[in-house]
Design a protein that fits this description.
With about 90 residues, this protein is mostly helical. It has helices at about 10-20, 25-35, 40-45, 50-60, 70-85. Bound molecules: zinc ion (ZN).
Length: about 90
C-alpha cells in the first residue's frame, strides 16, 4: 500500500496549494510538480481540471488571487510533464 511518493499524498496535496500562491516562484512550482509526477495517485488528481478548481477554492482566499493565466500555466506544466514522463 506504499505510494510512489512515499505515502505522502496528503502532504503533497497540501503543497499543491503553493502552486496557486502568487508568491511561489516558478522554480518552486516546478519542484512541487516534479514530486507530484512521481506518484500516479497524486498526479492523477492534478490532471483533473475539476480538482484544480477545487484546490483553488480550498487554498486561495479568492479565485481572483490565482488568475486564469496562472491556472492555465500550471495545467500546461502538468501536461508537459506527463509527456516527458511517458517518453522516458
Ligand atoms: Zn501520492
Amino acid at each position: 500500500m506504499t505510494e510512489p511518493c512515499g505515502g505522502r499524498c496528503e502532504d503533497i496535496q497540501a503543497q499543491l496549494c503553493a502552486l496557486f500562491d502568487p508568491s511561489t516562484t516558478p522554480e518552486r512550482a516546478r519542484e512541487i510538480l516534479q514530486i507530484v509526477a512521481e506518484c500516479p495517485h497524486c498526479h492523477g488528481r492534478l490532471e483533473s481540471e475539476q480538482e484544480i478548481r477545487a484546490l483553488l477554492r480550498r487554498c486561495c482566499t479568492s479565485e481572483a488571487s490565482a488568475p486564469a493565466a496562472l491556472r492555465q500555466r500550471i495545467t500546461m506544466e502538468i501536461r508537459q510533464m506527463r509527456v516527458t514522463r511517458y517518453q522516458g
